């Protein structure tokens, strides 16, 4: 039997077929719910269940236990078990759908032993005002995508990326051995629901793991020079000091911007390291026993995201104010399967 889904904010309805994910049914009915990865990893399609029940074939990685207990579900994986009333974000009327463009490699620069700074020129996308935090797909010859977040805010037709080499990864290995400035790539943009909530007046807690720094940096850079810039605290977690590929820039920001604070955290530090050690989310919890006045933006591997969500919720941070992008899961690890 079919079930009737009601959008609480507008009282509009649509039907869902047995076993059909809510996101698919909503799109079929003309309701573009906000989403990203479509396989339960990023949490962008989070909805609030006001009435009714859903089930999952397998519990999605992008939904924490605390979120489920508070009545949240992921539309891309949730299957209705009854009629539902839901509260869900819909892409706004001015939403820019992704489109395909040709990009030219402007430069390839080593930032560290395994991270490359890639700059692309995309003249046809110069008017595409992507939102800081979003990403694009680089399309390979076989039509499969590799996804990478923009590492700086919109700036004419130039687009920055921090790309970590994945051992055995088809694209990232070739980036270091095959591609040169002047080569062209087919790309799709803009993509992704990870972005700053400009309506909020809360302090911002940014937590990045590895090259998950890229979209976080894009958001910070878009805000840092605003007349009424929010208070921003960035925790950047990596394994060793050599992995802090933008440490000098971030230290400079911390010295010159009164509203910006930066804490690097190493999980496998050498004995001479004098800074913070351990897991990055644990450092946040040590410094902030009460997180109720923050909005949190998390970008990194799924275990970091899951642990941070759970620990931050225990310290008073509303799950509604936690925004995440499981960067390695939805972007980097895709490269290892090619």
Automatic annotation (TrEMBL):
Single GO MF annotation: 2 iron, 2 sulfur cluster binding
Protein EC: 1.17.1.-
Ranges of residues in domain FAD-binding FR-type: 98-197
Pfam families: FAD_binding_6 (PF00970), Fer2 (PF00111), NAD_binding_1 (PF00175)
Keyword line: Oxidoreductase
Record carries keyword Oxidoreductase: yes
SUPFAM superfamilies membership: 2Fe-2S ferredoxin-like, Ferredoxin reductase-like, C-terminal NADP-linked domain, Riboflavin synthase domain-like
PANTHER family: NADH OXIDOREDUCTASE HCR, PROTEIN RFBI
Stated name of the protein: CDP-6-deoxy-L-threo-D-glycero-4-hexulose-3-dehydrase reductase
UniProt source species: Halomonas chromatireducens
């Amino acid at each position: 039997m079919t079930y009737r889904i009601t959008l609480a904010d507008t009282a509009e309805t649509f039907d869902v077929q047995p076993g059909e994910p809510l996101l698919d049914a909503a799109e079929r009915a003309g309701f573009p719910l906000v989403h990203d990865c479509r396989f339960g990893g990023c949490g962008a399609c989070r909805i609030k269940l006001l009435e009714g029940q859903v089930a999952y074939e397998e519990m999605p990685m992008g939904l924490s236990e605390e979120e489920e207990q508070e009545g949240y579900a992921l539309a891309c994986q949730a299957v209705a078990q009854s009629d539902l009333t839901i509260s869900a974000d819909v892409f706004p009327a001015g939403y820019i759908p992704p489109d395909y463009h040709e990009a030219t490699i402007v430069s390839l620069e080593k930032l560290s032993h395994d991270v490359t700074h890639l700059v692309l020129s995309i003249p046809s996308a110069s008017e595409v005002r992507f939102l800081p935090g979003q990403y694009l797909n680089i399309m390979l010859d076989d039509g499969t995508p590799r996804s990478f977040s923009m590492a700086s805010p919109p700036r004419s037709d130039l687009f920055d990326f921090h790309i970590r080499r994945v051992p055995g990864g088809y694209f990232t290995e070739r980036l270091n051995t095959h591609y040169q400035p002047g080569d062209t790539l087919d790309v799709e943009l803009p993509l992704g629901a990870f972005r700053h909530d400009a309506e909020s007046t809360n302090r911002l807690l940014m937590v990045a793991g590895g090259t998950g720094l890229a979209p976080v940096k894009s958001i910070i850079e878009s805000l840092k020079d605003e007349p009424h810039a929010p208070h921003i605290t960035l925790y950047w977690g990596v394994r060793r000091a050599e992995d802090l590929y933008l440490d000098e820039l971030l230290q400079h920001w911390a010295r010159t911007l009164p509203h910006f604070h930066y804490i690097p955290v190493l999980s496998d530090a050498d004995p001479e390291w004098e800074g913070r050690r351990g897991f990055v989310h644990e450092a946040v919890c040590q410094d902030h026993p009460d997180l109720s006045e923050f909005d949190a933006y998390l970008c990194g591997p799924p275990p970091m995201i899951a642990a941070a969500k759970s620990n931050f919720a225990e310290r008073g941070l509303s799950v509604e104010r936690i925004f995440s992008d499981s960067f390695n899961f939805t972007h980097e690890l895709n490269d290892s399967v090619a």
